Every structure is written in C-alpha cells, then in structure tokens.
C-alpha cells in the first residue's frame, strides 16, 4: 500500500481533516514559505492528532542546534530536509531524516548515493529555481527508475487527484507527498484530500503487484 503524506498543514482543523481523509502522515513547514508555522503552532497541531499518525518537520538549511531543538519541542517523528544539507549534517540530527532531491534531469539522482546509509528515504521533488518545494510542478517521472533500490522513494511535485494514479504506476513509490494539490485558493480543501486518498488507495494494490 502506497503511503500518503499531506504537507504544509498550518492549523489543527486542517490536520484533523487530513487524518479523517486517511493520510498516514502530516507535515509542518518550518522554512520560509506561505505555509510556514512556528514551533508553537506545530506543537498545537501535533498534540491534537490521534495515535499512529506520523509527523514530519520540513526544514531548509537550518542550524543543527535549532533543528534538533524544534524536533524535540514538537516531538516530530521525522525531519524532511529540502536544502543543501550534507550527509555529515544528517548524521548529527537526532531524528530520522528524509532527504529531498530536486529533479530536473536523471543525473540529479546521482547525489543520492552519498546519503544511502545515512537517511531513511528520499523525497523526489521538481526542481524550480529559487523554490524549496510546494510549487505544484511535476518532473519527468521516468527519471525515478534510476533511484529505485537505493532507499524508499517518496514522490512529490505537482501531484493531484487527477494524476496520482499515473504517477504511482510509473514510479512505484513507497509514499506520495502532496501540498498544493489538495488546496483551493491557498487553503487545504477537505474534499480534495478525500479524493486524493481515494485515488491512491484504489491504485496502490495494483501498482505494487
């Protein structure tokens, strides 16, 4: 079963809507973004969640002390890194790490080798100049084949209910990650959340067989 992460949650009401829709994981953004939350906001969201929903903090080139401090304060389960963080940096983080690779050509995936024994998985997102994620852009999914077998792959970048089936069939990911694709006018939309989860659940079994 392909797992589902909804990212960029900014309040406990949208977080609960994500859980009720069937998301396995929710993400809070601590980097510069229109979806950025404070540690206090994230803590309130996380404390409102029922058990067995994992929580992810999204960071971009944060200092080690600060990232570990926020992770402890909010009790985050995993940390998702979208910047230029090195393997050595990742080793010093006190929570499991998912490293983002921004993809525009197949060779961009070569950098995954250096992190293979360090991180829990790789999130593959579209490369957009000056952006760290959440852009709503896709990338050529055929490039994902180069990363298969290296570590669990989380597919992100422009996913929506109307294209996630094709994305899963083409990439066979461990999980999918969506933010803008479940929004309407910049706000998380419960109906889009439900539709996205339904599309993923309907194709996951067949895509993995």
What does this structure look like?
This protein is α/β, with parallel strands linked by helices and 209 residues long. The chain has one domain (3-201): Aldolase class I (TIM Barrel), CATH 3.20.20.70. 30% of the residues lie in helices and 21% in strands. The chain contains six helices and ten strands; from the N terminus they run E-H-E-H-E-H-E-H-E-E-E-H-E-E-E-H. It has helices at residues 12-21, 39-47, 64-74, 87-91, 164-171, 190-208, and strands at residues 3-6, 25-29, 54-59, 78-81, 97-103, 121-126, 153-155, 175-178, 183-184, 187-188. The strands form two sheets. An eight-stranded parallel barrel has the order 1-2-3-4-5-6-7-8. It is globular, with a radius of gyration of 16 Å. The model has no long low-confidence stretch (mean pLDDT 91). One of its GO terms (molecular function) is phosphoribosylanthranilate isomerase activity. Residues 5-198 form the N-(5'phosphoribosyl) anthranilate isomerase (PRAI) domain. InterPro entries: Aldolase_TIM, PRAI_dom, RibuloseP-bd_barrel, TrpF_fam.
């Amino acid at each position: 079963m392909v797992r589902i992460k909804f990212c960029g949650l900014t309040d406990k009401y949208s977080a609960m809507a994500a859980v009720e829709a069937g998301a396995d994981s929710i993400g809070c953004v601590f980097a510069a973004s229109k979806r950025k939350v404070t540690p206090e906001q994230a803590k309130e969201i996380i404390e409102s969640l029922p058990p067995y929903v994992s929580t992810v903090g999204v960071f971009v080139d944060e200092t080690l002390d600060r990232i570990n401090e926020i992770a402890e304060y909010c009790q985050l389960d995993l940390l998702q890194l979208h910047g230029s963080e090195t393997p050595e940096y990742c080793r010093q983080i006190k929570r499991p790490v998912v490293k983002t690779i921004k993809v525009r050509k197949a060779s961009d995936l070569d950098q995954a080798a250096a992190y293979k024994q360090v991180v829990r998985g790789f999130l593959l997102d579209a490369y957009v100049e000056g952006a760290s994620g959440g852009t709503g852009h896709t990338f050529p999914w055929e490039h994902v084949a180069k990363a298969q077998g290296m570590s669990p792959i989380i597919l992100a970048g422009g996913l929506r209910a109307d294209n996630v089936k094709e994305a899963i069939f083409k990439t066979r990911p461990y999980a999918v990650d969506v933010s803008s694709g479940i929004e309407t006018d910049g706000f998380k939309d419960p109906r889009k959340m439900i539709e996205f989860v339904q599309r993923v659940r309907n194709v996951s079994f067949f895509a993995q067989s």
